[in-house]
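Slide 14.
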Amino acid sequence: MTPWNLLALPPLPEDALRGLMAPLGGRVELRVPASRDRAALLAALPDAEIVVGDWTAELALDAEAVAAAPRLAFVQQPSVGVDGHDAAALAAAGVPLANTAGVSAVAVAEWCVAAALALVRRLAEADAAVRAGGWPQQSLQPGELGGRRVGIVGFGPIGAACAGLFRAFGCEVSYWTRTPRDEPGHVDLRTLVAGSDVLVVVIALADETRGLVDARRMKPGALLVNAARGGVVDQDALAGALRDGHLGGAALDVFETEPLPAGDPLRELPQVLLSPHVAGVTPGSTGRLLEAVLANLTAALDGRPVTNVLNGVSPTISRKLGH
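Slide 15: predicted structure.
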């Protein structure tokens, strides 16, 4: 059988990509764009049958890119988020879009708990004070995480993992998800935001979730932990709520613009823990991600259904007629 044309978009050297895809053997012919820009992406798409996406979203498949890829049969995104890809355009073209749901759930959930603990115990402030020669033993007044109300926005694998860890600390956990559930713990979003001592945001970014969380509607003194995408939280409202003391603090692994621009007010505000979008980046999660990508690509080549298709297209991959 003629090898499938696989276009690899991750920001890695071509030799590294070939090494990662080596288990697929001669069943694919791997190509990369001539350069990391839109023009090179569009030039490479006409022959592409399978695309392994770019987790940075720099090279994403919008409607124009989908139209430039008449042979495209499958898109495998090597991340949980599918930012930038036009899922509807891919669906209209009969192209399934799959992600790697669940591979980073443990890592992200652990980061969320660690970040919440760091805020509650005021670890960063204590460290800075001691390094500066201080000894704020009486004035620091850290709190405890146990017994607090934790609200989780989004309840996929990451949200479920967060719930288990926070409950282990003795927290009262509630959650909201876009899929209504008739079960204990599921509450409406307004109630969750207004009543949580710690609000943890782990929902995917989509048109309907952009700007979903307004920090001004949170409980006074509450803490916000965002490990989803920066666009899910109204960042201007968050900065304002922190500046005027409405919130007790925030831990942010994601931002509307990444890297966080110089001069952004979040850099200067107290009680804000900043992280460079690494909550899900561990050797364990990276290994699980690679396994998931290779498993789906192998299934596609074998004619078996792939997993984690997000856009409602049949999970069985077929080559386009005439190719």
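Speaker note: Residues 283-302 form the longest helix (20 residues).
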